[in-house]
Amino acid sequence: MDFYQLLLAVPAILIALTFHEFAHAYVAYRFGDPTAKYMGRLTLNPLAHLDPMGTIMIFLIHFGWAKPVPVDPRYLGNPKRDLMWISAAGPLMNLALALLSGILIRVFLVAGLAHGQAGGTVSILFQMLYFSLYINLALAFFNLLPIPPLDGSKILAGLLPSRYASTLYMIETKGPMILFGIIMFGWITGFHVLGVVIGPFISAFSQLFAGI
After folding, report:
1. Span 62-72, pLDDT tens digits
2. Number of structural domains, the chain?
3. Each residue of 171-203: b (16+ CB within 10 Å) or e?
4. 82 pLDDT exceeds 90?
5. Statement: the pTM of the whole predicted model exceeds 0.85
6. What mean pLDDT is reported for the chain?
7. Is 21 a catalytic residue?
8. In terms of residue numbers, what domain contains 27?
């Protein structure tokens, strides 16, 4: 991704990360936990969700993160179930944004607007929709991986019987190190294991949502 493409991708990145974290905060609030609201996270203001280092890393290695939404299980009526849905809210929001982007891409294609004049407004909008589709799908399926601290690990914890709690806790303590190691391995070697895992899902849903 060159600098021009990165500039076109910035709005999609900001929207994807902001709506992802807002979804976590909103669902937590609906389940009775006001922690995120009190900390100013129940908002669509990107500045409330962006992590300085995570944002810098997006531009340096095209991988970054936002500030996690704080959740206090003591406010939840059924912590195990509620945490699962709070965790699922972020990836589901990204899938919804990807679907919306895909529908708009189909409109552009049907109207014959996908191949407008290079650098023209229509061409730029189409490229931005494409980035929105890809970024939201990538963020959704990346976060669904069952590796702590990703959302997928909390979804898995909500689905598994309670007798596996100790095993999940042990994995949770080592998960961030494992995840960071996998990401750095891909950055150094050029072989992105996570891309191999989630790539087929991104391709399948790109075809499903946008026909591309």
Report:
1. 666 789 999 99
2. 1
3. beeebeeebeebbeebeeeeebebeeebeeebe
4. yes
5. yes
6. 88
7. yes
8. 3-210
